[in-house]
């Protein structure tokens, strides 16, 4: 028998960046909020002993326990989906702060082209371009100009260190912090790309370039360039992290309660309205019902989609008919990359920071002509110096044996003489890539797992090949004497790590027939449910998604406050 708890104004499901921002912004306005997080609580003291690559980087201490919940995967409808039994292509985190604890901190704004991608593509290249590529692209129902102020609010909260992107959308204000330090690697990249006629700039970073205080009164320390960012919490408090930058403020308002080990399994509804959630205490196995006026879903992409499907909220997407919206437009990311080997240069690659790097956008979005190309969009090309830790870092030239004395000698020689250059290639939706509930496999509590049906498209393969050639050109201009062989993009594999930048499933738009939420992240058919996160992206851009997720969170808060005052649909 479930225990019913006292009613709150708002429930937030998941306490990563989006949940933390929404909690702080609602609570400061006097809204009574409870945040339900299925993982454990964290604070700065929990990061003091995390410089352990084996424990955190290889064995995923901060990630989800896949023996209790995972996803199933197949390439197409003709295959049987099987559970992902170990962390592979992407990392599913949990706990207070979410991925904001163990992220690298690269924080871009999506391009103006992204938000109106269908309209702008058809305007320039014609409807036939979209049809030939078989893409399900659609506009977001919001423009870059409308979202720009919210981008800056997130950059203030996370203390972004950066400089103007010469090919990005216009900014109303400079970044809160100046860019991070240049290194021999970033300077070499900038010089080479400048010589090639491109437009390099420093990667915008949530690693602090100086001591900084954000709008919530949190003091973030200057980065020490220790090289332990991705998959680690920052022991110096020098990385934008919700547990340091936002959650303490939310608690200090007196209007916010954080409950850890609370696994939300269902959104409860009556007469077309959400009335609360059902959750299980993962330590005691007790079941609770938490009533509220609004329910805010702020989990990871797959978590958001799965919770709506298990709660029968929204119409599930049907790839055969194209009808339905929940699970639609699942997208991943394309990662063309090349490693260059140098003879004379020595690079201290063991030092760095998660978002220390330089990049170009000359081949991102629609910054280059696609008339004669067999794809749209592109990718941000970057060299980052994140800290090459010894277990996971072992670049050797092509043709080197995979074991033995020569392998060891080449590993030692090129540890400080190799640089990898990688692009984050945009991922466009096709109707055969989607998310739904698995009919066979369930989690530890008896609820169906999420099933992912996904494979690379010709659009993806063509983009990958084109951008890969540009990366090779840059490394040779930098002085590499040899480069790794560029691989072709074939079938997607869920096993080797690629990126955790999954998007889609609960997409945003201006039409209830083709989208799940409006531009305030409010569900069209359940107006007191807000779903905020990368799950609302109708496609994935050539950047990390976090900056855009943060902007959408601030936008959503305005909608929630309006709804709590007046009710009804916001658009």
TrEMBL record:
MF-aspect GO terms: flavin adenine dinucleotide binding; oxidoreductase activity, acting on CH-OH group of donors
Keyword Flavoprotein in record: yes
SUPFAM superfamilies: FAD-linked reductases, C-terminal domain, FAD/NAD(P)-binding domain
Residues annotated as domain Glucose-methanol-choline oxidoreductase N-terminal: 185-330
Domain Glucose-methanol-choline oxidoreductase C-terminal: from-to ranges: 429-553
Source organism superkingdom: Bacteria
Entry-linked InterPro entries: FAD/NAD-bd_sf, GMC_OxRdtase_N, GMC_OxRtase_C
Pfam family, one: GMC_oxred_C
Keyword list, A-Z: FAD, Flavoprotein, Oxidoreductase
Family: Belongs to the GMC oxidoreductase family.
Name used for this protein in its record: GMC family oxidoreductase
Organism: Alkalihalobacillus trypoxylicola
């Amino acid at each position: 028998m479930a225990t019913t708890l006292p009613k709150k104004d708002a429930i937030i499901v998941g306490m990563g960046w989006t949940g933390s921002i929404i909690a702080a912004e609602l609570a400061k306005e006097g809204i009574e909020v409870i945040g339900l997080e299925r993982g454990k609580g964290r604070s700065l003291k929990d990061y003091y002993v995390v410089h352990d690559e084996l424990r955190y980087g290889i064995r995923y201490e901060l990630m989800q326990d896949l023996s209790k919940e995972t996803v199933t995967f197949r390439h197409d409808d003709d295959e049987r989906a099987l559970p992902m039994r170990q962390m592979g292509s992407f990392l599913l985190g949990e706990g207070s702060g979410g991925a904001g604890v163990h992220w690298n901190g690269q924080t871009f704004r999506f391009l103006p082209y992204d938000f109106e991608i269908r309209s702008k593509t058809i305007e320039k290249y014609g409807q036939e371009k979209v049809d030939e590529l078989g893409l399900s692209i659609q506009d977001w129902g919001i423009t870059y100009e409308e979202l720009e102020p919210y981008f800056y609010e997130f950059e203030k909260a996370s203390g972004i260190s950066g400089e103007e992107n010469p090919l990005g959308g216009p900014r109303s204000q400079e970044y809160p912090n100046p860019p991070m330090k240049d290194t021999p690697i970033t300077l070499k990249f900038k010089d080479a790309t400048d010589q090639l006629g491109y437009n390099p700039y420093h990667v915008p970073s949530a690693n602090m370039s100086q001591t900084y205080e954000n709008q919530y009164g949190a003091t973030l320390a200057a980065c020490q360039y220790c090289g332990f960012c991705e998959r680690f919490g920052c022991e110096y408090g020098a990385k934008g992290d919700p547990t340091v930058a936002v959650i303490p403020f939310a608690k200090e308002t007196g209007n916010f309660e954080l409950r850890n080990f609370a696994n939300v399994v269902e959104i409860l509804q009556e007469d077309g309205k959400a009335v609360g959630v059902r959750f299980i205490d993962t330590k005691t196995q007790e079941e609770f019902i938490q009533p509220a006026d609004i329910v805010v879903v702020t989990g990871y992409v797959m978590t958001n989609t799965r919770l709506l499907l298990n709660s029968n909220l929204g119409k599930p997407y049907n790839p055969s008919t194209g009808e339905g919206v929940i699970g639609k437009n699942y997208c991943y990311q394309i990662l063309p990359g090349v490693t260059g080997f140098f003879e004379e240069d020595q690079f201290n690659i063991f030092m760095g920071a998660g978002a220390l790097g330089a990049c170009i956008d000359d081949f991102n979005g629609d910054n280059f002509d696609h008339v004669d190309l067999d794809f749209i969009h592109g990718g941000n090309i970057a060299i980052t110096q994140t800290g090459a830790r010894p277990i996971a870092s072992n670049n050797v030239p092509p043709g080197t044996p995979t074991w033995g004395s020569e392998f060891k000698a080449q590993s030692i020689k090129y540890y400080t003489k190799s640089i990898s250059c990688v692009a984050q290639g945009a991922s466009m939706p096709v109707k055969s890539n989607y998310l739904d509930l698995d009919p066979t496999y369930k989690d530890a509590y008896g609820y169906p797992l999420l099933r992912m049906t996904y494979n690379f498209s010709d659009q993806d393969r063509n983009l990958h090949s084109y951008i890969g050639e540009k990366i090779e050109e840059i490394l040779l201009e930098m002085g590499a004497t040899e480069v790794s062989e560029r691989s072709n993009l074939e079938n997607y594999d869920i096993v080797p790590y690629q990126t955790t930048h999954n998007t889609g499933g609960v997409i945003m738009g201006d039409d209830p027939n083709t989208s799940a939420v409006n531009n305030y992240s409010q569900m069209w058919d359940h107006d007191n449910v807000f779903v905020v996160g990368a799950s609302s992206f109708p496609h994935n851009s050539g950047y990390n998604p976090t900056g855009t997720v943060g902007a959408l969170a601030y936008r959503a808060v305005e909608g929630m406050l309006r709804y709590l005052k007046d009710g009804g649909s916001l658009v």
